[in-house]
Design brief:
Blueprint: H1 4-8, E1 11-12, E2 22-23, E3 25-28, E4 36-38, E5 42-43, H2 51-55, H3 69-86, E6 90-93, E7 98-101, E8 105-106, E9 111-112, H4 113-121, H5 127-137, H6 143-156
Antiparallel strand pairs: 1-3, 2-5, 3-4, 6-7, 8-9
The chain binds zinc ion (2 copies).
Length: about 160
């Protein structure tokens, strides 16, 4: 089951109005924007097809589909299913609070490439790699750091 925050981060391309209403979602990488996954378009068949778009002009009342319980339920189901299918291809970066693709994730530093770039520019020039080397001879060093990353790993699943 995908996490609610991941589901929320999906972009909603659903089309509630018009002759061909339906659901579609996509997810962009928060880092490179190139890695975009889109769901297929699921037509919404329980609505009154075409009728509303003919009866109401564009700036008339909000489209009835968005208040239709069947629409609301399907909308949720499809967003959840899509989130489930793709969630493990994205990693949550706790620094910038975005979901990034595999290519934009730096496992060693536990942050996305955007944040790595910012990190490298900061005054602390890579203290993390320094502690990594020390950890080999002193495995109990930095327990807080390891706890944090295992919590992250658990959160990713
Ligand atoms: Zn990316
Ligand atoms: Zn980041």
């Amino acid at each position: 089951m995908a996490s609610p925050s991941f589901i929320k981060s999906l972009e909603d391309l659903s089309e509630p109005a018009g002759d061909n209403p339906g659901f579609q979602f996509q997810k962009k990488c928060g880092c490179c924007v190139k890695a975009t996954l889109s769901s297929e378009f699921f037509p919404f068949t329980q609505g009154v097809k075409g009728l509303f778009s003919k009866v109401f002009s564009k700036d008339a009342e909000p489209n009835p589909n968005q208040q239709n319980p069947a629409w609301i339920q399907k909308h949720q189901e499809i967003s959840e299913a899509f989130a489930d299918a793709i969630e493990d291809r994205y990693t949550y970066c706790p620094k910038c609070e975005k979901y990034v693709c595999e290519k934009c994730w730096n496992n060693v530093r536990d942050m996305c490439l955007n944040c790595c770039a910012g990190y490298a520019r900061s005054a602390y020039d890579d203290p993390y790699f320094g502690t990594k080397k020390k950890n080999k001879s002193a495995p109990n060093a930095e327990p807080a750091l390891r706890e944090r990353s295992s919590a992250l790993n658990a959160a990713r699943r």
